[in-house]
Design the sequence.
């Protein structure tokens, strides 16, 4: 069994049982305890599991949400590939929404200099990166800034979105599943994502492979709200197939 297959098995077992133990996994997967510990470290860095004494717990069971700096340091290559593929969905002109997130930051940095675009963001980080670009009209949504994600939320973000209509919304998610749809740990952030989807003609979901099959506290959309999902080549084929069966077009970077 390859390391990636073993790690996917660990995540599946953790979600089914609510917790995994190092010794039990080593016996079940026929590897050493040290190998399991390395796997758990890798999965924790990816934001999928939270290490606890003797094992790990899936993050959705404890409401754990890694901070932006932590998430920005993992799966860098996958997120860059997703952003490059999503760039094809950016219109030649018009308006787009970029949700706050580590993958949308990478997409923001790739926006071409030869297109006149209005870019609506709820991330001061993205607004700062794009603000000096002469071909872009950057609109920063106000509101409370969440420390975890540096996203603006609450009424000062929601009210402007109610009066906007853009060509494409590029939205991130913490979890996506056939059973629960699109989910994120924070209800305030979920409300903004929901408003972004409503304000767009098309919605493109940017979700690396660790988000598939994952569910969090607050739902902000159904799979029917998604026109295209861009994920990476490590996405589980069965999970991708289940999502595609609902009518969502999925491309892998």
Sequence:
């Amino acid at each position: 069994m390859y390391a990636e297959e073993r790690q996917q098995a660990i995540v599946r077992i953790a979600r089914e049982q609510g917790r995994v133990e190092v010794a039990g996994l080593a016996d079940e997967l026929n590897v050493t305890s040290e190998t399991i510990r390395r796997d758990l470290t890798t999965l924790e860095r990816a934001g999928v599991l939270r290490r606890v004494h003797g094992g790990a717990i899936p993050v959705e069971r404890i409401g754990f949400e890694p901070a932006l700096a932590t998430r920005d340091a993992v799966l860098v290559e996958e997120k860059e590939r997703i952003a490059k593929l999503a760039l094809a969905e950016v219109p030649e002109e018009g308006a787009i929404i970029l949700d706050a997130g580590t993958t949308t930051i990478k997409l923001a940095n790739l926006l071409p200099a030869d297109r006149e675009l209005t870019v609506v963001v709820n991330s001061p980080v993205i607004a700062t990166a794009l603000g000096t670009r002469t071909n872009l009209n950057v609109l920063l949504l106000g509101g409370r800034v969440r420390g975890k994600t540096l996203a603006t939320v609450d009424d000062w973000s929601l009210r402007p979105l109610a009066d906007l209509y853009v060509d494409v919304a590029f939205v991130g998610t913490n979890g996506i599943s056939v059973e629960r749809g699109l989910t994120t740990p924070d209800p305030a952030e979920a409300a903004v994502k929901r408003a972004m989807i409503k304000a767009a003609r098309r919605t493109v979901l940017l979700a690396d492979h660790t988000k598939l099959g994952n569910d969090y506290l607050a739902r902000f959309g159904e799979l029917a709200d998604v026109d295209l999902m861009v994920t990476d080549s490590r996405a589980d084929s069965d999970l991708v197939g289940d999502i595609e069966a609902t009518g969502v077009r999925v491309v892998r970077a």
